[in-house]
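Case 257 in the screening queue. Each case pairs one protein sequence with one candidate compound; here the compound is zinc ion. For every case the pipeline is the same: read the inputs, emit a complex structure as tokens, and attach any notable structural observations.

Predict complex for case 257.
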Amino acid sequence: MSGAASARRLLMPARETEAIILKTFPLGEADRLVSFFGRSSGRVRGVASGARRLKNRYGSTLEILSHVQIWYVEKETRDLVRIQQAELLESFHKAQSNYDLSTGLAVISEIAELVLPEHEVSEPMFRLILLATREVERTGDWALPLSYFAFWTVRLGGWLPRFDRCVACDTPFGTKPAFYDAHQSGLFCEKCRRAGMKPLQHEARTLAERFAGERLDRIEYHKSMEACARELREASLAWIENHLERRLTTRELLETT
Ligand SMILES: [Zn+2]
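Case 257 output:
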């Protein structure tokens, strides 16, 4: 390295942010490629050197959806930052180490990775991911947190259709079912529905209203809510896929757990 280059490098200050780990991939024999969502940095990709070694300084901080404080240095010439250190702020160990619960976390992480633009800060999405993950950990169940997360992702993204009337003919649904599919973003009435569309019953639309007005950790989950939570989750995931123009690979895992 030339004298000028090393001097420039010294001038690059280390950055620090509260962050959520979205994904990690093995990189070479010893390192990990880490995608994290920083509260003050947005979504960033970096390299954690030595993170694959048996004894490494990252411990369990790089687990999926871990809530951490992270220190990193930006490089001038590459998109990847160099991660220097991470400290666990909050552990979601129970959810991360349980197969069923970790599938719920995998869906949250895949969606966050795909919908969040790089380097774009989003305080509402940061809080949403944290809230949903916390509730999976606390309640030991992903059914309600994942419905809430998917619904709010669609809402924050601005892709939520009207829930009260048909997008094609403007007829109010009242208490009748509405219909949707992954090929368009609207809700349709019984007359305008097309082949293959799935129903979103009145109860599921009422749950959406609760989601819009209440925090997830204040909503008590009853077994009786299972069907409408699933319907709302399925519809929200369809709208997310419609927006992304691709299938979510983790979605299939939900159906097998
Ligand atoms: Zn209609």
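Case 257 observations:
- The chain has a mean pLDDT of 92.
- DSSP finds eight helices and seven strands in the chain.
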